[in-house]
Design goal:
The complex is a heterodimer of chains A (245) and B (316). With 245 residues, chain A is an alpha+beta fold. Chain A is built from seven helices and eleven strands. Chain A has a single domain, classed as Alpha-Beta Plaits (2-Layer Sandwich). In chain A, the strands form five sheets. In chain A, strands 10-1-11 form a three-stranded mixed β-sheet. Chain B is mainly alpha-helical. The radius of gyration of chain B is 22 Å and the shape is globular. The chains are: A alpha+beta (245), B mainly alpha (316). At the A-B interface, strand 3, strand 4, strand 5, helix 2 and helix 3 of A face helix 3, helix 7, strand 1 and helix 8 of B. Bound molecules: iron/sulfur cluster (3 copies). The site of one iron/sulfur cluster has 13 residues of chain A, from loops. The site of one iron/sulfur cluster has 15 residues of chain A, from helix 3.
């Protein structure tokens, strides 16, 4: 059913910290690794070792530059499906293959019923859907449903692959529908924001802005190193005389 | 947006097919065409061939065409699904109308009802085609109120050009009316697209690299490093770019060669006897369809998708 379900209390999603992301692409690689064998796999690669390698990825790491001169910043910018609250990628689907789950808000594609019309990818402003030219169906981030509810995994591992792998802890997973959850508090505290709010898709995933830049190292309490006085005699004096000849 | 050949053929052929069906059905409903084998066979035959060709061509666009039947299920929310349902529904009254008109001497009342129903179905189906594009917010060149009228009037104009040539052969009584009507439709089509192009050239930016990244407070945002070295699906499907000067030329070709020139030809053919008029009418069909194909190619090629903001675009 591609009509949207009534908005559930639970809105699972990611919070991505643009301050700490170092742009290492580890999350993208682990996403690919986990999901190519997951419910939406395979994440087909075409010509993987050739000159024109291309393939399906659910998570892509862009890097942007913002501002000018001294004040400019380089910001690494991971982007996967935002599991929007009002996503047209779901309502435009003619088959019902693209759907939003009523129980936790996750947006998924049924690989058995997708006809590969590509309309949903046109309807997503964020570029979160990639077509599998080989399988003829659309694919996208599943929020790792086969991990987060997976009873075979240790409880600590029941988080998305990208979250578990991030070496900078720039990705957080949780219930953004619950204002008391850790992720919701993090968003409130750090001023998390929506991408392209003007589209009206109401993304569930939030982005945390880069922190204010610091131009001094601040006071560490240690005293400055003493400057070595030049002396006219002794070994240093002799060296100085030799070298400045 | 990548101008996919299958989708261009689909929309142009089905537009012309439904346009012709609309004109024939109305002529039958108002008693301007009397049932006859050849009029029905050739006239309805061409209309059915065109929109059926369109539908088949749209299947080619699918990754899994064997599952196409599933597309009829989500008419509650999806314009693509509605378009599919309406296209199939249209076959019922139109098929009956064509059969009764061509092979049987059906009662007037029946033809009136079927004619009106077929005409309505044709219009509603083309509206649904236009709405598929018109409802996509990330593509501002499509998300505006010029799109559906343009689909309608271009379908009507190309349909009328076909009807016009048919009338010269099979129904001279309505030929003059159709000649005037096709001129008018071509002029309205040219005007609609002219206004559309002016609109997309001057529309204010809706989204920017700043709003796409939320980094505007830091200053101007530009792409530093793309996420991948080779093109991915998004670049291929949505990253299509056309040089402004090429677009301007193609617009002119569609406007002058595709709509104004055939309008002049048809107007001129009013002064001529049937057979030279038919030659002009045929040239007008070729010009009109070619111009509309060019227009449809541009409709895709000129449309910028919001995802380009993540790949170096600064505004859409
Ligand atoms: S990010 Fe795109 S694919 Fe994901 S829910 Fe939103 S609109 Fe749909
Ligand atoms: S590509 Fe598949 S999931 Fe997307 S709209 Fe078409 S049928 Fe639905
Ligand atoms: S949640 Fe899972 S599928 Fe989505 S980007 Fe992260 S690893 Fe990939």
């Amino acid at each position: 059913m591609t009509s949207l379900p009534p908005l559930a209390q639970k809105q699972l999603g990611l919070v991505i910290d643009l301050d700490t992301c170092v742009g290492c692409h580890a999350c993208a690689v682990n996403c690919k690794e986990w999901n190519t064998g997951g419910t939406s796999g395979p994440l087909t690669d075409l010509d993987p070792y050739g000159a024109d390698a291309a393939g399906v990825w659910f998570n892509r790491i862009h890097s942007f530059e913002a501002g000018e001169g001294d004040a400019s910043r380089t910001v690494h910018f991971p982007k996967s499906c935002l599991h929007c609250a009002e996503p047209a990628c779901v309502t435009v689907c003619p088959t019902g293959a693209s759907y939003k789950r009523a129980e936790d808000g996750i947006v998924l594609i049924n690989p058995e019923t997708c006809i590969g019309c590509k309309l949903c990818s046109w309807a997503c402003p964020y570029g979160a859907r990639e077509y599998d030219y080989d399988g003829g169906t659309m694919k996208k981030c599943t929020l790792c449903i086969d991990r987060i509810y997976n009873e075979n995994l240790e409880e600590i591992d029941r988080v998305p692959a990208c979250v578990s792998t991030c070496p900078a802890s720039a990705r957080h997973f949780g219930d953004l529908g619950d204002p008391e959850s850790k992720v919701s508090k993090l968003v409130a505290e750090r001023g998390g924001f929506d991408l392209m709010p003007e589209m009206g898709y109401k993304p569930t995933n939030k982005y945390l802005p880069p922190r204010q830049r610091q131009n001094s190292s601040g006071c560490t309490g240690a005293s400055a190193l003493p400057v070595v006085e030049q002396s006219a005699d002794g070994l240093l004096g002799w060296l100085d005389r030799i070298l400045s000849r | 947006m990548h101008p996919a050949f299958s989708v261009i053929i689909f929309t142009v052929a089905s537009g012309a097919g439904y346009g012709l069906l609309f004109v024939l059905a109305l002529l039958v409903a108002f008693g301007a065409l009397t049932p006859s084998f050849w009029t029905g066979f050739i006239g309805f035959g061409i209309a059915f061939a065109l929109f059926t060709l369109g539908l088949l061509s749209s299947f080619l666009h699918l990754g899994r065409p064997e599952r196409a039947w599933r597309a009829f299920s989500q008419w509650r929310s999806s314009w693509l699904s509605r378009e599919g349902v309406l296209a199939v529904v249209t076959y019922l009254p139109a098929g009956l109308l064509a059969l009764l008109f061509t092979f049987f001497d059906a009662a007037r009342g029946v033809l009136v009802v079927l004619g009106l129903l077929s005409a309505i179905c044709a219009v509603v189906t083309v509206i649904a085609t236009g709405m598929i594009y018109r409802s996509l917010k990330p593509i501002r060149a499509w998300y505006n109120s010029y799109v559906v009228p343009a689909y309608l009037v271009l379908g009507l104009a190309t349909g009328l050009l076909l009807a016009n040539a048919l009338a010269l052969v099979f129904a001279p009584a309505v030929a003059t009316t159709l000649q005037f009507a096709s001129c008018l439709a071509l002029l309205v089509a040219a005007l609609t697209k002219f206004l559309y192009w002016r609109y997309i050239d001057t529309m204010p930016a809706f989204s920017t690299a700043e709003s796409a990244t939320g980094l505007g407070h830091l200053g101007k945002v530009r792409l530093f490093e793309a996420p991948h070295t080779q093109e991915n699906y998004l670049n291929k499907e949505m990253g299509f770019r056309i040089a402004r000067k090429h677009a301007a030329k193609l617009r002119l070709i569609a406007l002058v060669g595709g709509w104004l020139a055939p309008a002049v030809l048809v107007l001129f053919s009013l002064l001529l006897p049937a057979s030279p008029a038919l030659v002009l009418a045929t040239i007008a069909i070729v010009l009109g369809l070619t111009g509309t194909l060019v227009e449809r190619w541009l409709f895709f090629a000129e449309a910028k998708h919001a995802v380009t903001l993540y790949y170096g675009g600064s505004s859409v």
